[in-house]
Amino acid sequence: MRKVLLCALGIAILAMAGSAYGQGKVWDDLSWWGLSGATPAPVKDSGGGACACVRNGCWWWPTEPASNANDQELWGNRGVVYNITCPVAAAPVPAPVPTPPPAPAPTPVHTKPTFNNVLFDFDKSVLKPEGRAVTDEVVASMKAHAGDTLVLEGHTDNIGSDAYNQALGLRRADAVKRYMIEQGIAPARIEAKSFGESQPAVPNDSPGNRSLNRRVVFNISIKGS
Residues with Cβ < 8 Å from 59, sequence gap 6 or more? Predict the structure, then answer.
């Protein structure tokens, strides 16, 4: 009987102690939060105190105070959280490299063209069909390159006086010039001049060679040259 009474007394004392402890502790009191120095960023664990080592872990403060039922998760909710491995900082995202504008297309190189000479019959300045065909090629080139200009150089063989051949060479150059103007080339882009018999292409020692000297030469000047 005495043993039973002692057990009952012990149970009563424990119940009173538990009631008193429960009345004195307020589990959901979050007043500590404002003094916690809470920060969302991890803080490297340096060991503290006399420890000169640097540990691998980091401390986190919760970013917001929180309570939970019966405060069963104090370590994770009401204080700091410790993790053995610190988070690896994300590598900075490099700024996008601006794409350079495409290089302008290279300007096509316009080289000085060369054309066959226009040949004339003896003592004539009439433009023949084959001469017009050659001149048409020159007209097309000058239309394609509006900055080009042209000097028409008239020549003769060595038959006749120098004065006569000088005038004949100019008539031949003028005949080609008139035709080019008719085909749409501005007169200001064409100059006609005569060299007479002074600049033969080949020696005037045969009929065949003299026919090659009765000519008009196209001397093109391209824009920018």
Answer: 42, 43, 45, 80, 81, 82
The predicted-structure confidence for 19-48, as pLDDT tens digits, reads as follows: 444 444 444 555 544 455 555 566 666 655
Residues 6+ positions from 215 with CB-CB distance below 8 Å:
117, 118, 119, 120, 155, 172, 201
The sign of the dihedral angle between the CA atoms of 141, 143, 147, 153 is positive
CA–CA separation, 174 and 196 (whole Å):
13
For the chain, which residues make up each domain, given as ranges? 36-88, 118-221
In single-letter form, the type of residue at position 88 comes to: V
Q: What is the pairing mode between strands 81-83 and 149-155?
A: unpaired
β 149-155/215-221 pair status: antiparallel
Give the C-alpha separation, 142 to 186, whole Å: 10
Residue 88 has pLDDT above 50, yes or no: yes
Top-level CATH class of 118-221?
alpha beta
> What is the amino acid identity at position 56?
N
Q: Apex CA 86: angle with CA 82 and CA 90, to 5°?
A: 140
Return the closest-CA partner of residue 68 out of 26, 39, 27. Answer: 27
| Whole-number Å distance between alpha carbons of 23 and 38 | 29
